Amino acid sequence: MEESFIIQPTDCTPKISLDAQLGQLVIEGESFPENVREFYEPIVERVETYLKASDGLEVRFDLRYFNTSSSKTILDLLEMLEGFFDEGKKVQVVWLYKEGIEVMQENGEDFAYDLRIPFELKSY
């Protein structure tokens, strides 16, 4: 089984933590790395490895800002999660956004629109 891990945030990358015992991945902060693929590819691979060996995963997004390249990578991650959901894994997404920040709420709604996985929007 994949081990838990934490990637600390930088000025342009989010904090990412996978708690293997809780079955929870949290992505929080801002995401506009210079090379999105280089940053996210190993994370997506680890999440995929985790899901292959587990019953499921809750993914919590708490992003304050992300650029277009990050948006594409988030969509790729969500589509991968949907594939595991279709295979019977318990996959759930929680999209957190700060009350009054409509663009982040709308981004979450846009991601949720075409997905079949449970997707909850929560303000704070």
UniProtKB/TrEMBL annotation:
This is DUF1987 domain-containing protein. It comes from the Bacteria. Residues 7-123 form the SiaC family regulatory phosphoprotein domain. It holds the Pfam family SiaC.
